[in-house]
Amino acid sequence: MRIDRKVVFWVAALVTLLILLFLFSSILLPFVAGAALAYLLDPLADWFERQGFSRLAATMTILVLFIVVLIALMLLVLPILINQLILLAQNLPDYLARLDVLINSILQSSWAESLGVDPAAVRSSLASLLSQGANWLTTLVTGLWSGGLAIINILALLVVTPVVAFYLLYDWDRMIDLVDSWIPRDSVGEVRLLASEIDRVLAGFVRGQAMVSLTLGTFYAAGLVLLGVNFGFLIGLVAGVVSFIPYLGSTLGFVVSVGIALLQFWPDWVMPVAAATLFISGQLIEGYVLQPYLIGTNVGLHPVWLMFSLFAFGLLFGFVGLLIAIPIAAAIGVLVRYALARYLASPIYRGQDGP
User: Fold this and answer.
1) Tell me, what DSSP letter sits at residue 51?
2) Is residue 192 within 8 Å of residue 180, measured between CB atoms?
3) CB atoms within 10 A of CB 195
């Protein structure tokens, strides 16, 4: 009965947490962002404390440095991004005209005729595909906007997030001790062990993935700019940021950059091939260098599980769901491995007469 009560207690706590997240998902964005920022910066605050800073001084120093670096990056990067977005909007009609010419030249080629390709059918299929893609993009943007990116939430994100991060970072250790004091005493050892494992997995993945995304974004943006691909900085930066979703960043960057290069340099194939080679190289560098050295192989977050978590929590909680998907995926992964280990050591698995 004691085990049954413990199971009921923890299941009820989990269900209550999910219900609260669902009910307040529309206002959680600045608080989740502030908590994530405090979590990421807590090791730095601990380092400052070891150097003789008080917790308050360490927190203020970190946030001032963070804000200065963020403003500097915005002053350097934001004008470039805005300029490239404006150029993209201005050049979009020209690119659509070039795309039409490119499709016609391919459909009228000798190898297309030898394959028995019907140009009218292909053009109809492409038109339908482009229409569906535009509808999907509109739906996605509308969903993100209504799910947490309205103007008032953007202002709240900019104003409230630093305040939340400051207080959470300042009180982080005391909050951990307070939560620890609430844990049922007969479960405190197991909970501490599981919390430590979740923290190890989450810290290893999030902090490592942040470095991977930054490195890949810089690599892709610099490579595309050197190749002379239009909007290369914007494409590379977005591909790097989105790379926290396995394979999505590199695939998205590959398709967009090669497509832009084809429209820009057609009929020359050198630059499109070079753009494709850049992203293939980036994927190899990520898989064989960045992932093993910056994240490691023992974090326990399988790419398929990670993608499922991002899509599932994004569907349930909107943009906030994307922010909480990774920590919840890490926690669930640790809990499942723990439950599986307990099951394999139990009489249910070994049989009542087992050793």
Assistant:
1) T
2) yes
3) 16
Shortest CA distance to 278 belongs to which of 257, 260, 259? 257
Please state the separation of Cα 247 from the chain's center in Å.
Answer: 11
Query: What's the rounded Cα separation, in Å, for the pair 108 and 172?
Result: 66
Its pTM surpasses 0.85: no
Positive/negative CA dihedral, 286, 290, 296, 301: negative
pLDDT, tens digit only, all 355 positions of the chain: 445 566 677 778 778 887 887 777 677 777 877 888 888 888 888 889 888 888 889 888 888 888 888 788 778 777 777 777 777 677 767 766 666 666 666 666 555 556 555 566 666 666 666 666 556 555 655 554 454 444 555 566 677 788 888 888 888 888 888 888 888 777 788 888 888 888 887 777 777 778 888 888 889 989 988 988 887 888 888 888 877 776 777 888 888 888 888 877 777 778 888 988 988 888 888 877 877 776 655 566 677 777 788 788 877 777 667 777 777 887 888 888 888 887 788 777 777 655 5
* Residue extents of the structural domains in the chain: 1-71+137-182, 190-347
231 DSSP assignment: T
Q: How far is CA 274 from CA 228, 231, 251, 265, 354, in A?
A: 11, 15, 15, 12, 62
Calculate ∠ Cα 188-173-69, nearest 5°. 140
Residue position matching structure tokens 């599932």: 312
Rounded to 5, what percent of the chain is helix, strand, coil? 85, 0, 15
